[in-house]
Design a protein that fits this description.
Blueprint: E1 20-24, H1 32-35, E2 39-44, E3 52-53, H2 56-62, E4 67-74, E5 84-91, H3 98-118, E6 132-133, H4 138-141, H5 149-158, E7 165-169, E8 172-181, E9 189-190, E10 193-200, E11 206-207, H6 208-216
Parallel strand pairs: 1-2, 3-6
Antiparallel strand pairs: 2-4, 4-5, 7-8, 8-10, 9-10, 10-11
Helix pairs in contact: 2-5
Length: about 220
Amino acid sequence: MEVRQPQKLDESVAVDNVDAIVVVAYGALIPGALLDRTLWLNVHPSLLPRWRGAAPVERAIMAGDAETGVTIHRTTAELDAGPIAAQQAFPIGADDDAGSVYAQAGALAAELLEGVLEAPEFRPQPDDGATYAEKLTAADRELDWDRSAEALVNQIRALSPHIGARGVVDGRTLTVWRAAPAGPESKLIAGGLELLEVQPEGKRRMTGEEYLHGLRD
């Protein structure tokens, strides 16, 4: 199977001699003329129509969704709205972050694609219940310690291990990679959370306890 990663698609791209083209995490516009010339399949890591758009895994975790999944659908001009060929759900565990959810989605997508490519059949995708996973921005990284502990943990999980949530703790900016609701034995605390893994600016990742030791030295 040939894998291509073109920066831009135009009508000069040769697609007529292939049975299907599978698109994964491809954000560029696919011209309608190309969509008409062969079967295009999009692999999307959500239970469409929930979380159409650029950041479905991150938005699902931020929202506290109990499950997500993989949808394989025909690529159409409308964003992530094409008819569905296959869809399967899996739970989002309390300890899952974006990295582990993407890994599960990738393995499931490979299984689903095998069946779809053999004999694709489609059912209409409903618009009812559609939500949109907007592209992540710098504002999504900023931790507001006045939010609930649950919302903060979900934000941190959603941005780990690839982007990182950021917050100011005792006047120092930290990227927070893992956190949990604070308890009586917690060491590094902010906003009702124990910060389990952090990264000071310009330094490596470390446990919250290692960070506190460094401040004392």
